[in-house]
Design goal:
By secondary structure, the chain is an alpha/beta fold. The protein is 36% helix and 21% strand. An eight-stranded parallel barrel has the order 23-24-25-26-27-28-29-30, surrounded by eight helices. Strands 15-19-18-17-16-20-21 form a seven-stranded mixed beta barrel. The chain is elongated.
């Protein structure tokens, strides 16, 4: 080793083993630079100052005593003088000089970069602490980075500023919280070729789904310009989810794309040093930051990086606007879910609901109540009392010492990979980010309740509400022989629910996705030129902007929703029921009133199978089939089975199955199974004949009870007569189960009764049901009832 390399190490000569020499961040960069290039991972070249260089700086300037004396004066109870202590410590460092031998080594290394990549090449100078990016402590954002640094003098100044950032107030507090001695944490400055993402895009990537801990998905976020806008939470980024097991194996491993608003883009100030945060041009706001090929490349790199390190990783990527190439600029261990057992779960249920104040992206599962404390900057930290809920526009690392006191965190801006989200996960607080109007809708000092118990959308309610908490250990739960399955509608909950005890999804309802995500009547997309209502036309044009066709909008949105649920439960069955809106419900969609007739009794009118082959809806059904074909064949989820609702006759069933074949979904081809809902008496009476057309049945107990007893289930005046335990209803259920089994067809039931009534669960098991599907809030009770029924030896029906 030459003398220069005692103080400065090129990335080409370091790796993860050198963590104590150049810090976690730089050691990781060197490791990837040397070990992962064979996997195609591109890491910008650079070098790092060593921890020995930092010791040399401290010793030559006789700083140890002065720094120790300062830190001894720190109020480590209330931290009232934290900011002042940090400021004084940084001043000591900035007033000192870099040793000559270190200056010479940095100059030599920088000029080497310039020789290889161009005169006065621009670099990023980033701090890297020796206790940083550990699996147990990330130190993310505690120390400073400096971007677009040009010229050797600017590099030397940035290195000293990195040294000073070891004494940022947030870094001092973090070391105390994590139990590190101040003088035992040393710092290295990484000097890395600057990726010109200011001319393109950048973002964050997790090799694990960061909210649920689901490990088979890579989550990538992106914004225009520098990635700091994502880390700081200044923008709502694009978000992509990629199913890891299918990468390079299927045509479309991307299961979800969500376009963020991306209102700001951070670029370099070409007239001076530093950066500018500009308004993003409208055309860029409306465009995705990455192509599908680029998303897949980053995901593949994430998989390689995760495999190399043997743990889930938090990664930063950047795209150079000059050469069009992608790079990995940081990678650190994911410190939250990789250390948490996802099978240990707390289940939260609000007992009531107050006035909804705002909502946003939920970070963490749970409920919290407290007084809202609206803060503009970290300087107001004294106003926040322990247990209160922090409400602000956005956060950055300067907020870290404050956030530990909060029972919850709410920000106007930011996404699931923003600073507020990352810190909330690390400190175990729940957060809602990207709420948009939180600081307007929430009053300082008022009691509020933050509810993150219902998936990825968190809600803030007025007042102090009460809730129940149940703790579950799913890993050791006994499962019944009869298959317990989910009834699902919302893809946002799928990854979390995948850890619950289950045998797949017995009923996925498409109506939720069409209503909430698509919002447009399928016929208004298939025949947009015929839409007359000008207001609806404008809204449809806005929603479908950026898609090559109106039809593609529907296919894309629906396939992503189904693909997400299919990925969460793969390879278990996911039975997708084709749309089952009634005509009055379809009419509520954009453009819907024009394509729907007014019916006296929509419940038994133009719904289900009858719609699919009718000219009034056939083009809409074609779009549904195209989406399901994409899920099965392009995304690769052959665990998806399809189900036809409200099929009145066997002949009608044949028509629909033949039509699906015409639309590319042929029963039996590529393993496709098509089920039918058993919810009309004709389905029961002619079950053997229906079994010749379909592969299985799912009993819709609500409609079957309604039509067997002749009861409008929506009528309050006769609601007490609605009862699945009525002998006539049980006769119908028992008969269709028996006929299905005799025909060799699978049969399940979707409904609330088996979770509410242990005796009803016992009746179904005795009758020979193959599966019972429950709503997510009922599946645990349902399994309990199923086990009780099987243990009583009512009968033990093994899966056929």
């Amino acid at each position: 080793m030459n003398d220069a390399e005692k103080w400065v190490k090129p990335f080409a000569k370091v790796g993860i083993k050198d963590l104590e020499l150049i810090g976690g961040k730089n050691a990781s960069l060197g490791e990837m630079f040397n070990k992962l290039s064979s996997a195609g991972v591109e890491v910008p070249d650079g070098f790092a100052t060593t921890s020995d260089a930092f010791r040399l700086f401290i010793n030559k300037n006789h700083l140890s005593t002065g720094l120790s004396t300062l830190l001894e004066k720190l109020d480590d109870v209330t931290f009232s003088n934290l900011n002042q202590i940090g400021e004084n410590a940084r001043s000591l460092i900035m007033e000192s000089s870099l040793p000559e031998e270190l200056i010479a080594s940095i100059k030599l290394a920088y000029y080497g970069l310039c020789g290889r990549y161009g005169k006065d090449v621009a670099v990023a100078v980033r701090s890297s602490a020796t206790a940083e990016d550990l699996p147990t402590a990330s130190f993310a954002g505690q120390h400073d980075s400096f971007l677009h640094v040009q010229g050797v003098e600017a590099v030397l100044d940035a290195v000293k500023k990195c040294y000073a950032s070891l004494y940022n107030a947030r870094a001092i507090k973090y070391r105390i919280d994590q139990g590190f001695q101040h003088d035992q944490v040393l710092i290295s400055a990484g000097v890395q070729l600057m990726v010109r993402s200011d001319l393109s895009s950048a973002g964050v990537c997790f090799s694990i789904e960061p909210d649920s801990g689901f490990r088979d998905v890579v989550v990538i976020t992106g914004c225009w310009g520098l990635g700091e806008n994502i880390v700081q939470g200044t923008v709502t980024p694009d978000e992509f989810q990629v199913y890891k097991p299918f990468l390079s194996k299927v045509k479309q491993p991307i299961i979800s794309r969500k376009k963020g608003s991306k209102l700001k883009m951070m670029v370099y100030d070409e007239k001076g040093s530093g950066t500018l945060n500009l308004d993003t041009p409208i055309d860029k706001q409306d465009a995705f930051t990455l192509t599908d090929d680029e998303v897949e490349k980053i995901a593949a790199w994430a998989v390689s990086i995760e495999a190399h390190y043997g743990m889930p990783m938090d990664i930063e990527w950047a795209k150079d606007g000059l050469n069009g190439r992608l790079y990995i600029v940081q990678a650190r261990p994911e410190t939250v879910h990789s250390a948490r057992d996802p099978y240990l779960l707390k289940e939260f249920h609000l007992k009531g609901k107050g006035k909804l104040l705002t909502s946003g992206s939920a970070v963490g599962n749970g409920v919290a109540a407290g007084k809202a404390r609206l803060l503009v900057s970290p300087a107001e930290s004294g106003k926040l009392l322990p247990g209160e809920i922090l409400v602000t526009d956005l956060t950055n690392p300067d907020w870290d010492p404050i956030m530990k006191k909060a029972a919850g965190i709410i920000t106007n801006k930011g996404g699931r990979t923003s600073h507020a989200a990352i810190v909330a996960r690390e400190v175990g607080a729940i957060a809602i980010v990207g709420a948009g109007n939180a600081t307007e809708k929430i009053k300082d000092g008022e009691w509020i309740t933050v509810d993150n118990s219902q998936g990825k959308i968190g809600k803030v309610f007025e007042g102090k509400l009460e809730w129940d908490v149940k703790e579950h250990d799913f890993r050791n739960m006994k499962m019944p022989d009869t298959r317990p399955m989910f009834i699902l509608a919302d893809p946002e909950k799928a990854f979390t629910l995948s850890f619950y005890p289950n045998q797949g999804v017995g009923l996925m309802r498409l109506e939720f996705v069409i209503n909430h995500s698509i919002q447009i009547h399928p016929m208004a997309l298939a025949q947009f030129d015929d839409v007359k209502n000008e207001t609806d036309r404008k809204k449809i044009e806005h929603l479908t902007d950026g898609y090559e066709s109106k039809e593609e909008y529907f296919i894309d949105k629906l396939s992503q929703a189904v693909g997400t649920i299919a990925a969460a439960f793969y390879p278990k069955d996911v039975i997708v029921r084709m749309s089952d809106f009634k005509s009055n419900e379809y009419a509520q969609l954009l453009g819907g009133s024009q394509f729907e007739l007014q019916e006296e009794n929509p419940m038994i009118g133009f719904r289900g199978a009858s719609r699919y082959y009718h000219e009034r809806y056939k083009p809409g059904f074609k779009l549904e089939c195209a989406a399901m074909k994409r899920v099965r064949e392009e995304m690769g989820f052959n665990n998806v089975k399809l189900m036809i609702p409200f099929c009145r006759t066997v002949e009608e069933g044949k028509k629909v199955v033949d039509l699906m074949a015409d639309f590319g979904l042929k029963r039996g081809e590529k393993g496709l199974e098509i089920y039918v809902m058993a919810e009309i008496p004709s389905n029961v009476i002619l079950a053997a004949s229906f079994a010749e057309v379909f592969d299985g049945f799912s009993i819709g107990s609500n409609d079957l009870t309604q039509l067997t007893l002749g009861i409008d289930r929506d009528s309050a005046i006769i609601s007490e007569l609605f009862d699945e335990n009525n002998p006539a209803v049980k006769f119908m259920i028992e008969k269709v189960i028996g006929d299905a089994r005799a025909s060799g067809a699978k049969i399940g039931l979707c409904g609330q009764a088996p979770s509410d009534d242990p005796a009803f669960a016992g009746f179904l098991i005795h009758a020979g049901i193959h599966s019972i599907s429950f709503n997510p809030d009922a599946i645990l009770k349902g399994i309990e009832n199923m086990l009780a029924a099987e243990n009583k030896n009512i009968t033990q029906i093994q899966l056929a």
